[in-house]
Amino acid sequence: MTDSSSDELKPKAKSAAVPVARKAQKKITRGPGKRAQEARRQFLRSVALTIGVTSISLLGFIPIPADAKRPRLRPPGALSEEDYLSSCIKCGQCVQVCPVNAVKLDDIGTGFGIGAAYIDAREQGCDFSCDGLQCVLACPTGSLTHTLDYTHDTRMGFAVLDKPKICLAVAGKGFKGQARGPDYEGLLRYEEIDRWNPIPLKDHPYDVEICDLCVQACPIEQRYNQCQAGKPPSGDENQCPPQRAIGLELIEEKNGVKHMKPVIYDGCVGCGVCEMICPTAEPAIIIDYNKLTKIPLSEHYMAKASKGDH
Amino acid sequence: MNVYLESIAQLFGRASRKIKKDEISPAAQKLYYYKKGQTVTKAQIQELHDEHQKNRKNKWLKRRWFSIIAVNLLFVVSWSLDIQLLEGSLTASRFMGFHMADLNSALQVMLAYKAVLINLLIGVVTIFIAWFLLGGRTFCSWACPYHLLAEWAESLHLWLFKRGLAKNYTFHRGVRSVFYVIFALLAIVTSYTVFELISPTGILSRAIIYGPGLALIWVAFLLLFEIFLSRRAWCRYVCPIGITYGIVGVFSPLRVTYDLTDCKHEGDCRAVCLVPHVLDLTIKNRSSDVEVGLGADCTRCGLCVDACPTDSLNFEFKGLTRKTKKEELPLMPEPPAGKEPSDEQKKEAKND
Known about the structure:
By secondary structure, chain A is of the alpha+beta class. Chain A is 28% helix and 12% strand. Chain A has two domains: 4-60, no CATH class; 81-306, no CATH class. The termini of chain A are far apart. Chain B is mainly alpha-helical.
């Protein structure tokens, strides 16, 4: 490396030690040169890109309600709306395991809710026909909490008779035919037909003198009745709901008029089957996503929760 | 170790530097010295380039496109046939029942939810080991559906650019690291997985499996931006998934290796590369040794391997790839008659 010293004296001379010569040249051209200008522009562009992309990503806040209310019915076991959206990894494994295709994924219109699972009860309610809460088992993050083992410990929402005026039972009317018409694609499990395979709702027409489809189809009611008959589902008494969820009652109005009316009891978990099957053009009964039953969760659930299982 | 630190610095956005002469191994110095004596004319290089383009088989490109399509279709097929082979989507899935979780999505969820989730951790470890063995950013070019679309958009961009119909605004590469920190902080502060809103990887994977949605408009916007304004902007300057997998691949045994011996330094590899800075070592006097692995930012896409007319770039799995070729051949081709040999001998003597 003896020739490098001579390079410093004569930078223009061609030699093997190129780096030294280049360094010297760089010093001379430094200033508001083309390269510096381009670097400055590139820096400003990079700042603009950062601000731009970050701002766009924050647009996800717009559709999020400030009071953390559920804009959607969430699948069984869903954590509180805030925790649910934090922990959901948006993979859709819950969608894939649902035997009645009740679970769907949200689009970008819901902001940070993008890719998170929801149930459109009117399209397809959760009839628990998988019995084992497959979506909960599939969830890799516990967004649908793994503490949940039994149907009646689900807390999705709570049914309300939203439009009693159009309810067929209130009007004293019966119902005959396909609950949702011939074009409806929804599925429902009828244990007496096939315990394992839900069938299209349109393949199971009804004929009742007073419409009680919501009561008949209620998965909690069905389990409750099985338990009352001494035949709990899968022979497991833990499967028995602690209370009824819905029933038709004879109501006497103040003016003395008597009529039947679906009454929702504390056993309701908000699965959405009543909203789905309600045969009126608009459902008379719907699910309130933000209301939950007041009855306590089962001991089994509480014991599991206290162990901190996810 | 220093090599790995440099590789990480490069991943985070540091521009590659000219290396000092004493950092170049004697063997490599010898080669550079020899090449200095050999004048390669532009015409010769053009001929070499044209000849290679004529016979080019795009072996790795074909394999890679097949891989991206196969991986993403496997999700669809598995669900539609209900064979439970690969359930979920690219953000989190189960392969034959085993949990797998995209590292970046899992990180976002854990930061937003502020809890370590056991199933997710299992998935993270599985995926970490898998992509470590496969090369880290291999995920980008061999599995990410956006990569494939962006590649097609890139060809369109290059076509338009050549005709002056598109611009190519560049950004500082360090901005991707800034985004990485921003999205991590946003997840912590807002408790939402903010990045998932704009991640084209997640959006596309879900669109392929569960059906298209409005979110595809965002993906289309990104592609248009890349076509008309900035070549491969998302992958180069924004996507934190790339950094996450880049870190996984720092010590990965699978990589593309550069062999200085026959390289003509014509730059065909850098012209096709998504991350050309990893190929800066193919510039004359930039490679520290005769054989060097490319840095962690390399997505192992193999475009450079396909493009190289002199076979100087090749895939290597450390410890498995046999280097018989190099051992059998002499280090250098026979020097032509002239002044050079004597100079070289002098040089050799000096080095000894």
